[in-house]
Amino acid sequence: MKNNSPLVYFVKEITIVVIGVLIAVSIGNYKEKSDNRKYVKKTLLAIENEIKLSQSEIDTVLERHLRLYEKLENEFGEDGPTLGEFLSNAGGFQVASIKNVSLRFFIANKAELLDFGLISQLLDIELKTTLLTNKIERFSDFAYDHINDGGGEVKTKFAFLLGDVIDGEQTLMESYSKFLDENKSYLTGKAK
Description:
Blueprint: H1 6-75, H2 83-90, H3 101-110, H4 116-145, H5 152-182, H6 184-187
Helix pairs in contact: 1-3, 1-5, 4-5
């Protein structure tokens, strides 16, 4: 004969409800983890693409700046042209278009999904991008302020500021390469 006591019935019902809740929570956790993995993969792919585009841009501009620096040493002297004339003859200077949109969005929204080392590298890239932007602003401000000037002092300051921009571009390029080399497992989706 079955024991139909209210206590046994209550325990059976509670057990069924608890098991149902545990199954629902497990399914929800699995779905959230799956969604997070997809989000990280898409975002890292976007970051990788932005880095590669920025690398290409900076590489082109860096070569141009190195040639400009060479011409500066050879052609811009005490009795030579004004800074504006020199830049016009040398083809001017260029600024690379650096993309960090995905990086900023990711760090602001879901940074906790990644390894601290990876986040640290991304933040380092962001910092170096900001420093390069500041160097370029100082460089261009000086160039525009002294566009009609010439002479040794202008040449020296211009050379110093151009060297600073070149250094910033090279440093950022090194950070990009290091990030891509050290994080192949994340970028290819083979990370744990």
